[in-house]
Amino acid sequence: QVDVAAMVQLFGYVDVTDSGFIVAVLSIIFNPLFWNVVARWEHKTRALSQVFGSPHAACYCLGTAILALNFVRSHCFTEAMKSQPKLEGWDSHWTYYSGLAILAVGTLFVISSFLALGFTGTFLGDYFGILMEEKVTSFPFSVLDNPMYWGSTAIYLGWSLMHASPAGLLLTAVVAISYTIAVLYEG
């Protein structure tokens, strides 16, 4: 039997009906859905490559759109956290620095993934017919499958801990679930 007392207490701090929280959830869910649908559509039709005149231009355009959507998602996430109460017991130096360390590790995974894959490797170039010469197996891929997704999740977890935010923790769970579904869909 699972003890759900901690979860019930955590949910007591989160207003899931708050409009900012709902917008954050929707932006978290929308992002991987958007890029997977658009990339698969491009792979089937080559429509974006035709509109932009080349697969590279189309991939860079999609990558730019994904980056913009990620900034919007992060803004919505932060605003949702700020509009909800903090967990006072976690509003301490220990929690703040633990969150900072988790955020730093997540950032390391995201940046090193980007450096290993490059722009087109990161932003779905394979769907545009832009293939890498060989599979990337160096760090961080040697340590973790899908390091970009889990690094991003770690960034949100660290950010939530730094702000002692139960709403942030719940939103981080939504990020993790969204990425888990994206990995299944992409695989």
Characterization of this structure:
With 187 residues, this protein is mainly alpha-helical. 72% of the residues lie in helices and 0% in strands. The chain has one domain (4-186). The longest helix has 30 residues, at 93-122. This is Phosphatidylethanolamine N-methyltransferase.
Can you tag this structure with a few keywords?
187 residues; mainly alpha; globular; phospholipid metabolism; transmembrane
Average predicted local confidence, pLDDT: 93
Largest sheet: none
DSSP E strands, number? 0
Name the overall outline: globular
Distance between the termini: 33 Å
Structural class: mainly alpha
Strand content: under 5%
Count of discrete structural domains: 1
Chart the SSEs and their pairings.
Blueprint: H1 5-11, H2 19-45, H3 47-52, H4 55-82, H5 93-122, H6 147-162, H7 166-186
Helix pairs in contact: 2-4, 2-7, 4-7, 5-6, 6-7
Summary, kept brief:
With 187 residues, the chain is an all-alpha fold. The protein has helices at 5-11, 19-45, 47-52, 55-82, 93-122, 147-162, 166-186.
